[in-house]
Amino acid sequence: MTALVKMTYSDVDLDAVAALGGLIAIFVGADGKLDSCARKVNTLSRKAVERLVASDAFAGLSEGSALRLAFPTGVTAAGVIVVKLERRPSVEAARLAGAALALEKGPLDMTVLAGNIGKLADVALGLALRDYDFNAHKTAEPKARGAVAFMSSKLDGFDPKSVSAIAEGVFFTRDLTNEPANVLTTSNFADRLAEMQALGLKVEVLEEAELEKLGMGALLCVGQGSESPSKVVVMQWNGGGDEAPFALVGKGVVFDTGGISIKPAAGMEDMTMDMGGAGVVSGVMKTLALRKAKANVVGVVGIVENMPSGNAVRPGDVVTSMKGDKIEVVNTDAEGRLVLSDVLWYTQERFRPVGMINLATLTGAIIIALGHENAGVFSNSDDLSGAFIKAASAEGEGAWRMPLSAAYDKMINCRIADMRNTGGGRDAGSITAAQFLARFVKPETPWAHLDIAGVASIKGGTKLAPAGATGWGVMALNRLISDRYEA
Length: 487
Ligand code: BES
Ligand code: MN
Ligand code: ZN
Hints:
By secondary structure, the chain is α/β, with parallel strands linked by helices. It folds into two domains: 7-154, Leucine Aminopeptidase, subunit E, domain 1 (3-Layer(aba) Sandwich); 164-484, Zn peptidases (Aminopeptidase, 3-Layer(aba) Sandwich), CATH 3.40.630. It is built from 16 helices and 19 strands. Strand 3 and strand 4 (79-84) form a beta hairpin. Helix 5 packs parallel to helix 6 (160-178). The model has no long low-confidence stretch (mean pLDDT 98). It binds ligand BES, manganese (II) ion and zinc ion. Manganese (II) ion binds next to loops.
């Protein structure tokens, strides 16, 4: 597990500034006015801060970006980081400022002279999130990571756990999603989830024999070509009363070769992230447990590996889902919807949830439609999808509503079975996938499907994540739950 950067918080002590080691960070707004922390550093450094703030370089900085004064005179510190940030910043600007600090920090300790800057929690969260580095498979000693000490006059009512609970959930998702498939096997994934029992979550691992008894023929056919056993893991957080839970459902394909409908070699290695939906569900459950959320939430993930073999499901095979509907598997690479159909049905039958959101790296087509900026949101409920999109926007996680309708649903009708698992061609590929899922959602269940194929892992990274897994959705879902399901 990638550890969070060490962060501590104390009141401002200006007398300590001259002798601080490592790096010092200060904040200055666009008007160039120095607060008492910046003034202190300015005086000690014989007005170096003033000169930097008067420069064209500072004028050209966008809010949340930083410049460095290297080895300024008058202080022991090796550098002063000057971050452009208003005293009452937006959440987005505060997180960007934190990310800028993470990038400047390197191996040195840093003292952040935050003074009375608002949104301290978001500065800290942005810093923690951008300080992530997945180095589990680098043999070299991991690079030293400096600790961060915040000095703030706004610590009344500030709870450091509100920051670390979110960052740890996001890191859990990123670690799972970055992990290669020979390490994160189906069993290893289930073991990592079972470990969360130590946090007060109830975790059950359903093995193949039980899945067969439940009739999960759609999920099981996906994993039948793999040496690794298919599993469903149920994680329950009961922090509310006795009301029905809210449900999160995730696609956990630890590797997607495509099966007999095998994918081309180029880029196939990226399919280690095909469990990203299950990764987000797991990260949210971790955050809820760490912050002891006052809500009932159940997370259910289908964990399988999609491999070709003599025992693999074939194109043209007909399988029977737990719901009872029969499905012609016309393309074994459209496997995520097969996994989800059974997990969605199971979740509704067992928990009768008040609402249900599933996440899946479901289609390449959603990347064609929305790129890496937005996940696709498909829903039978304007209320639930609207609330989710609002929460996502508040957290800076892109989410865009996509359509569902009977005309698209017709495209998955099938000559020999109740439905087929693709629309036949490439037209509306992410919508036909969503229509398939919709057939396994009861009319009374408010439901949203998030197609996260474009946002779960991004080669160029994001403002708050280095290249690779982003943890997209953990913050939005955590916020949705706290806004909607907690007293
Ligand atoms: N896991 C893939 C979707 C995917 C593609 C995720 C790119 C992340 C990045 C999914 O199982 C898949 O293979 N979908 C097919 C569906 C098609 C066969 C109908 C696709 O998108 O091509
Ligand atoms: Mn596939
Ligand atoms: Zn897949």
